[in-house]
Structure formats: C-alpha cells, structure tokens
Amino acid sequence: MRSIELTFDLATEAAFTAEWAALQDAGLPNLGRHQGASNRPHLTLAAGPALEIKDALQAVFGPDPQRAGAVLPVDLRVSGVVLFRAGSGRFVLARPVVMTRALLELHRAVLELAPGAVELTQPDRWTPHVTLARRLSADQVTEALAVLGEPPAVGSCVAARFWNGETKTLTALAG
Q: How many angstroms from the chain centroid is the CA of residue 123?
C-alpha cells in the first residue's frame, strides 16, 4: 500500500506517542510496538496500491517555500475516540480529527492530483484519524478506553510525506 500522510509538530507527536506508551504499559496492542523509522503518528490523506507522486502533487506542498507555507502548517483539532472494524471480533482504535475547512481543502487538492486512492480516502468518504492501536479485541477496547486520557485538543500538521509500502521508503513532500 502507498499513502500520502501529514505528520505533526513535536508537541502533538509527543502526545500521540505518549498514548501509544500508555497502551504499551497496559500490555495492550499499540502502534508504538513497531520500531521502524517510518512509524510515527500521522494523518493519512490518501492511500492506495497505485498512488504515485506526480510533479503536480509535489507542487501542492512545495518546492516553492511560499506555496508550502500557504498549505502547511494546518491546524489540527482532535476529539474523543473512534473504532473501526478490523475483521471478526477485532477493532482499530483511533483519535478522530475534526474536519476543518483548511484540512478539507488540502485533502481535496491532494486527491485531485493523486489518482488511485482507495474509496475510503475519497472526499465525502474519508474519516480523518490518528491510529493508536490495531487488532484489539472488544475486551481490550474497554481496557484501552480506561487507560487513555483526554486527547491532545489542538496541534498542527507541519510536514507531508509519501509512503511506499512496496519499497518501504518515505519521500518528504514538505516540512
């Protein structure tokens, strides 16, 4: 799978990694267990096996610093938790991100220039979120909710990257 992702300012990233650590300390599945260089909290704008970086897409984020400054940073507001089904009796636990006008405009601009995104990342189908844990059982969801505190209320998306899961490579798009 390939994806176009936004990453966060240091304080926001630290808040999400602290949540991963709290789940880890409780013996629960979490994304902090993966130690690869690519693993850090992020917000996926688009995903799909055929997604490609095109010159026009790079122009959304840069290389013109004035253009990049107009797009990023994007303010981030987080609320509550959300669950997604992940197979029989398994769930993904995430923090939903409020869809602000700036975030929606950026999302639409990226998808106009990134054909091949899967249906669930298309406009009007996309649920922006930051994943905390995958493959939780229903009992583990209950435990995780007891462990987690309040979400980081505000933050900022300050960088963009392209992840190629086939080659296991990251390409910086901005930031």
A: 16
Residue 121 has pLDDT above 70, yes or no: yes
Dump pLDDT digits (tens) for 20-71. 999 999 999 999 887 776 789 999 999 999 887 776 676 677 655 444 445 7
Sheet containing strand 91-96, edge to edge, reads 82-85, 91-96, 129-136
Domain ranges of the chain: 2-174
Separation between Cα atoms, residue 68 and residue 53, nearest integer Å: 16
Cα 84 to Cα 92: distance, rounded to the nearest angstrom: 5
Q: Quick one: fold of 2-174?
A: Cyclic Phosphodiesterase; Chain: A, (3.90.1140)
